[in-house]
Amino acid sequence: METKLKRMRESRNTHNENARRAAESRNAVQEQAKSLRDDIDILKEKQKEIRVRAKLHKARRDEIQSHIRELISKKRGRRDEERGAKSIVIELSETEAEIEKIETRLETDGSLKLEDENKLLKHLKKLIGKRNELLPSVEEYQTITIDLGDMDESISRLKAEADSEHQAMVDSHKEADEVWEEIKPMFEERDFLQAEGDRLHNAFVESRKSADEVHSEMKVLLDQVNEIRDTMKAQREEREKTIRDHNESVRDALRVPSENEELAQSLEGMFLESGSLTLGGTGSEDNPSPTSEKSSSKSKRRRLGTTRGRI
Question: What does the domain layout of the chain look like in residue ranges?
Answer without folding.
Answer: 2-216
